[in-house]
Amino acid sequence: MALKIRLARGGAKKRPFYSIVVADGRSPRDGRFIEKVGTYNPMLERDHADRVILKEERLKHWLGVGAQPTERVARFLGNAGLMAKSEIRVTPQKSAPKKKAQERAAAGAEAAAAAAPPVAAEAAGEAAGSAA
After folding, report:
1. What is residue 57's three-state secondary structure?
2. Contact, 123 vs 112, CB < 8 A?
3. Which one of 25, 78, 104, 129 has the minimum C-beta count within 10 Å?
């Protein structure tokens, strides 16, 4: 049985509230779970004390037994110091600008750089002339 530490959604429509639960990986998201080990309220500010509440003793037990946290729960556990912080994921390569868009951006940057120095030189020359 593969154990997962994951979020189970509760709360009203457009007012999410999550329970952090230990569940069998095959059970549904909001379905059967083994134990509730914390809560997460995304409606509160990031620095609010009640945004994430964890039962640290029980989480240590379940991590020791081999339960695997999901990405979001792993971030909570890393912030609480219960496990190593996960690395920040990079943006997928598919979403990066394609070749033609990169060429257009480079051409625009070159054109802006070519146009900018004479204007700056004229302004500098005028400032020097008025100071003399």
Report:
1. helix
2. no
3. 129
Q: Give this prediction's pTM.
A: 0.65
Q: Is the dihedral of CA 67, 78, 37, 69 positive or negative?
A: negative
Q: What are the structural domain ranges in the chain?
A: 3-80, 93-131
Per CATH, domain 3-80 is 3.40.50.720: no
Residue type, 118: P
Crossing angle of the two packed helices 56-65 and 71-80, in degrees rounded to 10: 120
Q: Is 64 helix (H, G, I), strand (E, B) or coil?
A: helix
Q: In terms of DSSP H, where are the helices of 26-98? A: 56-65, 71-80
What is the SS3 assignment for 7? strand
Can you read off the two tokens belonging to residue 53?
């509440």
Say how far apart CA 56 and CA 34 lie, in whole Å. Answer: 16
Look at the chain and count its residues: 132
